[in-house]
Amino acid sequence: MSKTATKPKKAPAKGKSAEAGQVPIFVMGQRFEVPASLTIQKALEYAGYQLVRGCGCRGGICGACGTVYRFPDSYRIEVGLACQTVVQPDMYIAQIPFFPGNKAVYDIETLPAEGGTIAALYPEVFKCVGCGTCTRSCPMDIDVMGYISKAIQGDIAAVAESSFDCVMCGLCAARCPAEEVQYNIGILARRLYARHLAPKAGHLAKAVKLVEAGTFDKALKELKKTTTDELKKLYKALEMEPDMAEESWTPKNTSYLGG
Ligand code: SF4
Ligand code: SF4
Ligand code: FES
Question: What is the 3-state secondary structure (H, E, C) of 93-147?
């Protein structure tokens, strides 16, 4: 986050009321007045900051915008994603930088998909004191302490499944008294599970065989000869898969499916 040449909208001096619909917030100690409907991320930009770090998808997916804040009458440090959290009056806000957590280096192809692997790469997992701070800090409502407990037990599938929604924001690790890097443990389990344990998708293997056998070559050649307008017409005429279609759904014309 850096300041641009944009003139920031500073809040009125203490004691004077803010405009209707505006709330005062504090960004690294400086007071600004921003619209009450904005997320923290938009409020920072409204205040004149240019987000060159700590901002990615703006949609709660990339985890780049981990933010800590506190209210003046509370000792509690609160956390959230800046792109998803709406400002509240008198928030003291600071975005966390990239969190320099421990990250094991490994070759997933040769890494054994067995219980001891997580502990071998992240032995600090056993330092967890079960305080639950990670779970309370997680903006994705993940039972982080729960998956760390499964990691201690070496249950790769359970860690992979329960950490699935992790956006790697780092807020859990930032607050962990045992210095765990939960999100790197979670992604290790998901990689191990996906590479070595998940059942292979039979329909995908079948489709690859059809491609290799040249099943679609003729149709592809014909399509490549058509003009853009003809392609658009063909696309519009395609029978679309309905929302919530059954697993077994197939279009009436199966000539493009090789089947
Ligand atoms: S914050 Fe750290 S020590 Fe506390 S439960 Fe989570 S992983 Fe364990
Ligand atoms: S598990 Fe940790 S890194 Fe993942 S979303 Fe939750 S707080 Fe962020
Ligand atoms: S910017 Fe991607 S999660 Fe907030």
Answer: EEECCCCCCCCCCCCCCCCCCCCHHHHHHCHHHHHCCCCCHHHHHCCCCCCHHHH
